[in-house]
Amino acid sequence: MIYRSKAPLRIGLAGGGTDVSPYSDEYGGAILNATVSLSAHASIQSIDENAIVLEALDRKEEQRFEWSSNLPINGTLDLHKGIYNRIHKDFGVPLTGFKLSTFVDAPAGSGLGTSSTLVVAILGAFAEMLKLPLGEYDIAHLAYQIEREDLQLAGGKQDQYAATFGGVNFMEFYDGDKVIVNPLRIKSQYLHELENNLVLYYTSTSRESAAIIKEQVKNVNSKNEKSIDAMHQLKEQSRMMKEALLKGRLHEIGEILDFGFEQKRKMAANISNNNIEEIYDAAKKAGATGGKISGAGGGGFMIFYCPHNSRYKVIETLKTFGGEIKEYTFTKYGLTTWTV
């Protein structure tokens, strides 16, 4: 038997960073995001040997262990091992050998929530194999606990919930790890127009989000007024984006993104850099009305809102920087699992 799963990556449209503790605990956070047709994939297959084999096919990494109830966290395939350790601890697994294989449709550190989405996908494959009675909130919260508590990886909460629920969601974050996911019923013509006008561009550089997030956390803990006020403004940006999408005021999207990018720069020092600023300015001169860095910042993917037919000139301009335009569609599905 093979137990498979896939979970969608996401584009953050507004409010990014307000899902990170301690800001979300003290002030409450709000984010608007949408899942896209790029996914993290996982499969678990029984093997005829007393071993555990882990492989990340996209990264060409593999590790093999004799069967054990606890695998060492040592810097290689730690997400895979951390999930296995937590699943074994909480639910138990059959005392048989298996191979866990994964693949992600975007590079690690690219800003589309790849790591958290991969955690959700692997959890989905284990849930399918073990027939675990876990709902969407259960899986998303467990994924968050594994990353942030078990593995001590810095980050927020939105990615786990986006990957599990799928679609376009307005998410609220509160003290005590309380999260409320509000699916948005956006008219199809508005969503098609947003998809047509929103260009997804990979800068061909990945970044380590942890350092940026740690600085953001430090700024909140030290009561840095500039940084905290920027997060307040980003939270308000998520509400502005929600209203614009629900009411079809798509002509406002670029300006709302531009406003958010202005605030995002104030949260931590390395969110932007000279290369990102040059790309952003060139895209706006070519016709984009706004944009942002996806994820924590520092590199990875950027998105640009290109109204009318400006997307074609913007794409031509972006290609001169040596990056890659990534084709996508918005998706409604979240975590999906099945058995072969």
Please give a structural write-up.
The protein is α+β, with helices and mostly antiparallel strands. The chain folds into 2 domains: 2-185, 2-Layer Sandwich (Ribosomal Protein S5, domain 2), CATH 3.30.230; 188-325, GHMP kinase, C-terminal domain (Alpha-Beta Plaits, 2-Layer Sandwich), CATH 3.30.70. It is 40% helix and 24% strand. It contains 11 helices and 12 strands. The chain has helices at residues 23-27, 78-90, 114-130, 136-150, 158-165, 188-197, 209-221, 225-247, 253-264, 274-285, 311-319; strands spanning 2-14, 29-46, 51-56, 61-66, 98-104, 168-174, 178-183, 198-202, 290-293, 301-305, 324-325, 336-339. Strands 1, 2, 3, 4, 5, 6, 7 and 12 form an 8-stranded mixed β-sheet that branches. Strands 9-10-8-11 form a 4-stranded antiparallel β-sheet. Strand 3 (51-56) and strand 4 (61-66) form a beta hairpin. Helix 2 packs across helix 4 (136-150). It is globular, with a radius of gyration of 20 Å. It starts with a strand and ends with a strand.
